[in-house]
């Protein structure tokens, strides 16, 4: 399996990157070469932006352009390749110091491979001042350095950076694409893979989680049931409290898994066995990790709430489709009787108003309003609109 095999439903983007990996950097005549120093991969969350970034990185660092099996490819997959630097942020904003460190590292020559590759997974999370630090590095790229930035859209970057990068846009993969990936890569049974891909609305990471983690799947099912069963303001208040609990559990499950992996990894790289005490001179490293994980927990709850709200939107989206008579591709097909009951009791305008209420709650939670308040306000609003 080569590094490209996991990238589903993106034939155009793949062709661009494969051609680039197979060609040479010609700094004298950039227009004639398919390879260039700075790339931007854009696409909606879950479309596989970072997967593609690392596949491209592997193909640049591997001796056979991404075989998927050699030490270079494996080190890229583990993010431990000596010529690969990455920036993934657990915070809302990437700090200027993090970018300064990356820029400094970008001036070294590659140590073992053709290139030095730097991946910034959330390039949209940079303040303008930070972007300007990066811009300097992009304007005068060292000979063998390649930058790969990822962001939801080009508009998320300042124009001066946009003009320095070659941009490649990903599409939302089809449900069929994601289903096939889960079947072929993860060995998931086809019916279950289709269900997960559909419920995740083609978000690859979410689909993988729903297909392989029973608890995550049942948390989604419960939040959908709650909303389908809401009949009045009292139900809405109770549902809001329970949804917050579900999001908290979901976020905790996700961060616990990652925290444990990171701790294990840090111990391993520092050569400390699992039962050994941490030597005094290494404590600061673990303290940093702990702080980083705490910050991530905060963002993780917001992400968890957002996942729930996206699921709730899928309910009202389905209701609207039933009301408009275009119900061929319902996301929550299993809930057809309950969806039909709601659809028959309301107008499409009311369902659209409920969708607006959820969008508004997503924005408010993203902008730091107390999640409990935003959820409650949203559900009460949705139920009033539906009952009006
Ligand atoms: Zn390889």
Question: What do you see in this structure?
Answer:
The chain is of the alpha/beta class. The chain folds into three domains: 11-169, 3-Layer(aba) Sandwich (Rossmann fold); 175-212; 233-387, no CATH class. The chain has 15 helices and five strands. It has helices at 11-22, 49-61, 71-77, 96-106, 128-139, 159-162, 175-186, 190-199, 204-212, 214-228, 233-270, 283-324, 336-345, 348-366, 371-387; strands spanning 38-42, 84-87, 116-120, 145-151, 166-169. The protein has a five-stranded parallel β-sheet, sandwiched between helices. α2 (49-61) runs antiparallel to α3 and α10 packs antiparallel against α11 (233-270). The radius of gyration is 23 Å and the shape is globular. The mean pLDDT is 87. Zinc ion (ZN) is lined by residues 62, 64, 66-67, 70, 72-73.
As for the CATH topology of the largest domain, it is Rossmann fold
* Rg from Cα: 23 Å
* CATH level 1 name of the largest domain: Alpha Beta
Order of helices and strands: HEHHEHEHEHEHHHHHHHHH
Task: Kindly name the structural category.
Answer: alpha/beta
What portion of residues is helical?
Answer: 55-70%
Strand content: 5-15%
The assigned CATH architecture of the largest domain is: 3-Layer(aba) Sandwich
> CATH superfamily assignment of the largest domain?
P-loop containing nucleotide triphosphate hydrolases
Helical stretch tally: 15
- Overall number of strands: 5
Overall geometric form: globular
């Amino acid at each position: 399996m080569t590094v490209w095999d996991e990238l589903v439903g993106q034939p155009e983007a793949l062709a661009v990157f494969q051609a680039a990996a197979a060609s040479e950097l010609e700094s004298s005549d950039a227009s004639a070469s398919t390879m260039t120093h700075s790339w931007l991969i854009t696409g909606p969350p879950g479309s596989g932006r970072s997967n593609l970034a690392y596949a491209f990185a592997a193909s640049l660092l591997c001796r056979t352009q991404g075989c998927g099996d050699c030490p270079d490819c494996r080190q890229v997959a583990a993010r431990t390749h000596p010529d690969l630097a990455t920036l993934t942020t657990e915070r809302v904003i990437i700090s200027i110091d993090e970018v300064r460190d990356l820029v400094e590292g970008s001036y070294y020559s590659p140590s073992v491979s053709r290139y030095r590759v730097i991946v910034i997974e959330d390039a949209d999370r940079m303040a303008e001042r930070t972007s300007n630090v990066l811009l300097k590095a992009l304007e005068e790229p060292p000979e063998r350095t390649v930058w790969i930035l990822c962001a939801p859209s080009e508009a998320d970057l300042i124009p001066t950076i946009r003009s320095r990068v070659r941009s490649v846009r990903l599409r939302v993969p089809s449900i069929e694409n994601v289903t096939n990936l889960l079947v072929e890569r993860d060995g998931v049974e086809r019916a279950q893979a289709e269900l997960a891909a559909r419920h995740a609305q083609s978000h690859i990471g979410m689909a993988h989680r729903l297909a392989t983690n029973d608890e995550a799947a049942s948390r989604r099912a419960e939040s959908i049931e709650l909303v389908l069963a809401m009949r009045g303001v009292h139900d809405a208040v109770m549902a809001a409290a329970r949804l917050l609990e579900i999001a908290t559990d979901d976020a905790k499950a996700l961060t616990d898994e990652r925290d444990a992996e990171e701790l294990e990894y840090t111990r391993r790289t520092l050569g400390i066995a699992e039962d050994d005490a941490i030597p005094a001179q290494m404590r600061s490293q673990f303290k940093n990790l702990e702080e980083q994980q705490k910050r991530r927990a905060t963002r993780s709850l917001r992400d968890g709430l957002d996942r729930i709200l996206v699921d709730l939107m899928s309910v009202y989206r389905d209701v609207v489709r039933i009301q408009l008579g275009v119900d061929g591709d319902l996301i929550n097909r299993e809930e057809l009787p309950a969806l039909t009951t709601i659809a028959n009791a309301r107008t499409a305008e009311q369902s659209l108003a409920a969708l607006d209420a959820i969008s508004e709650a997503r924005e408010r939670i993203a902008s730091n309003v107390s999640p409990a308040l935003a959820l409650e306000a949203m559900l009460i609003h949705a139920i009033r609109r539906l009952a009006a």
